[in-house]
Design brief:
The complex is a heterodimer.
Chain A lengths: L5 H19 L29 E6 L14 H6 L6 H4 L20 E4 L4 E4 L12 E8 L5 H10 L9 H9 L9 E5 L26 E2 L18 H21 L4 H24 L6 H6 L8 H15 L4 E5 L16 H25 L6 E6 L3 E7 L3 E5 L3 E7 L5 E3 L1 E2 L6 E3 L2 E2 H11 L9 E3 L2 E3 L15
Parallel strand pairs in A: 1-7, 1-8, 4-12, 4-15, 5-6, 5-7
Antiparallel strand pairs in A: 2-3, 4-11, 8-11, 9-10, 13-14, 16-17
Chain B lengths: L2 H22 L5 H19 L3 H23 L5 H22 L3 H21 L4
Helix pairs in contact in B: 1-3, 2-3, 2-5, 3-4, 4-5
Classes of the chains: A alpha/beta, B mainly alpha.
Chain lengths: 475, 129
């Protein structure tokens, strides 16, 4: 996976302002004026009062089987071993490698939890205790049957690369609430490629100025490549160098009053300088208590990496980072990702264990600190998995019906929508990825139809021409 | 050639293609749907930019295309509900056109929003996969 370095960041900021400069030449920037984009980090007002200040997007790359996690289907258990009935399969175009297998029952034990009575399988014993804070969207659907295409649609509302990720739109629309940190941070975890569905293309700024792309934080103490001062250069020297560069740039700027790139370059040097201290501090877990670290599963082999990422996410929320995109990966080499075309039981045992305790810990921690009310936590994936089997003991990709969930930030807990009796297709409360994106923007105080950027003559929006806010789950 | 001229020519071309397709046997296929998707996005953008000429051309193209789709499905008893979807979408495109011609871009915007919803509603039944 490509990691962002400080040089990349500087380069991006410079390039990005080139695009912003075009705004000054006549392109219409509805949310942010060209002048504001001189400083891409400058905070900008939402369209209406926001319910959430930050988003933590938990992307389950590779696509878990929500039929084995949240979507309990007794009928599927009853029909297990039989061919997919025509009544369910009508009009379905499948491309399952090796052919569509017979219906495959979940092997898990299921219970209803909390006051909301949400069904959760025993793959997620910790998360089941948090269901009363969660709104389950059980009628999700999308397009595409490959990880990369559906992942692009989930994150960028496009089926091909080139559109901005939702986090980029948020940063573009709202700027940064912390001048010392990027507003859109990506925390990739684990190993595996998840069929290409977790690469840099899903946090790209696309046609927006490059300054709005996600900044990927690395594991370890130094989250951004080349962040630290070069060896042998002391702070005073670096400060003097930056001051000299700034003085020369300011001098040059007098004769180039319309050169937004130059102004932006100076600002990006300052941001990078501030990030030398702010970024490591933001991800330093040294001051977290042993109890907090344990809550996230830090120190336990299976949950250590994902738990560390989620505790970092909470710390970034505390520092007013607007959009934190945590991408799941396999905790070890025993599986690749959630992509269980075969041996689903083994795959989901490993993957569920790696995320269950950390996610439950995150929700509990945010709540105990009073942060859950203003932090929107989103759990989703590029699609779900089929009720029919593949390879005997796995499941294929299912874009027709699956579960996602949201918690916190202005979201009303409960269960919304459903799939059919075997969990193949969304049946009620159908939610497309555009609707999920529109709802997230709404909680941040943004109208998805009013966030616009002109590109190649067309007024582009984060959710294209689609996207209806899911009003039933709003507080 | 600037974008607006291109849009106008594309819309005119789409109309011409749609008309000739009707004569030659109108096919409702993936190519047609991609064309509609593109025209709807252009319409949405042109309404947002209050470009009446280009927006009206897009809306006219959609009215025409959906009238052909309605006729196409009208010949197939097994897809009777598609006639209703196509008719409704055609009406929304006509509403958008009327609003654009009256320079009421708020009303046009509302009609376009409903039109794209209508597309999604139809696709809940057709091309669910």
């Amino acid at each position: 996976m490509t990691q962002s370095s400080r040089r990349d960041f500087l380069g991006s900021a410079g390039l990005g302002l080139g695009a912003a400069a075009l705004g000054g030449l006549g392109l219409q920037l509805n949310v942010a004026s060209a002048a504001e984009l001189d400083d891409p980090q400058a905070p900008r007002q939402p369209h209406f009062p926001a319910k959430a200040k930050s988003v933590i997007w938990l992307h389950m790359a590779g696509a878990p089987s929500t039929l084995d996690l949240f979507d309990y289907k007794p009928e599927l258990i009853k029909l297990a071993g039989k061919p997919l009935p025509d009544s369910f399969a009508k009009g379905l175009k499948t491309a399952t490698d090796g052919g569509v297998g017979n219906l495959l029952a979940t092997k898990r034990t299921w219970k209803q939890y909390g006051e909301t009575g949400a069904w959760v399988s025993d793959f997620l014993p910790n998360l089941s205790k948090q269901v009363d804070d969660i709104a389950f969207l059980k009628g999700c659907k999308t397009e595409g049957a490959t990880h990369i295409i559906s992942s692009l649609k989930l994150h960028t509302a496009g089926l091909v690369p080139g559109r901005p990720a939702l986090g980029s739109w948020v940063q573009y629309a709202l700027g940064s609430a912390n001048p010392d940190l990027p507003a859109f941070v990506v925390l990739p975890t684990g190993v595996g490629a998840a069929g290409g569905g977790r690469g840099q293309v899903i946090w790209s700024s696309g046609f927006l100025p490059a300054a709005y792309q996600g900044t990927a934080f690395r594991k370890g103490d130094s989250p951004i490549l080349h962040l630290a001062r070069p060896e042998g250069v002391i702070d005073t020297e670096q400060r003097n160098t930056l001051d000299l560069i700034k003085a020369l740039n300011d001098h040059e700027a007098v004769a180039r009053s319309g050169d937004t790139e130059l102004a932006a370059r100076s600002k990006s040097y300052e941001l990078a300088y501030k990030m030398e201290t702010s970024a490591p501090e933001a991800v330093d877990l040294g001051k977290e208590t042993a109890a907090t670290r344990e809550l996230y599963g830090i120190g336990t082999k299976e949950t250590d990496e994902y738990g560390t990422a989620l505790l970092r996410a909470r710390r970034l929320v505390e520092r007013n980072v607007r959009f934190i995109h945590v991408i799941s990966g396999a905790p070890d080499q025993s599986v690749d990702s959630w992509d269980a075309h075969n041996n689903l039981e083994k795959n989901h045992s490993v993957m569920s264990k790696s995320v269950d305790k950390p996610i439950a810990g995150l929700l509990a921690d945010l709540k105990s600190r009073g942060l859950l009310d203003t932090t929107l936590v989103v759990w989703t994936s590029e699609f779900g998995r089929t009720p029919y089997g593949q390879s005997g003991n796995g499941r294929d990709h299912n874009p027709w019906g699956y579960t996602s969930w949201l918690a916190g930030g202005g979201i009303k807990p409960g269960t919304f929508g459903s799939t059919d009796d075997i969990g193949l297709r969304a049946q009620t409360g159908v939610v497309d990825t555009y609707d999920l994106q529109a709802t997230i923007l709404n909680r941040l105080g943004l109208d998805n139809r009013k966030v616009t950027f002109q590109y190649q003559g067309r007024q582009e929006r984060p959710t294209t021409v689609f996207g209806d806010v899911i009003k039933d789950i709003l507080v | 050639m600037n974008r607006r001229t291109k849009n106008f020519l594309c819309a005119a071309f789409s109309l011409a293609v749609a008309t000739s397709a009707l004569c030659a046997g109108f096919d409702v296929d993936g190519d047609l749907m991609r064309g509609i998707d593109d025209t709807a996005k252009d319409l949405d953008s042109n309404v947002a930019q209050k470009d009446a000429k280009a927006a009206a051309a897009d809306a006219r193209s959609l009215v025409e295309t959906f009238s052909h789709i309605e006729a196409h499905y009208g010949e197939k008893p097994e897809t009777a509900d598609a006639v209703g979807f196509a008719h409704h979408t055609q009406e929304l495109a006509a509403q958008a056109l009327k609003a654009i011609e009256a320079n009421d871009f708020d009303a046009a915007n509302t009609a376009v929003e409903q039109l794209t919803r209508s597309c999604k509603t139809c696709h809940e039944v057709y091309k669910k996969d």
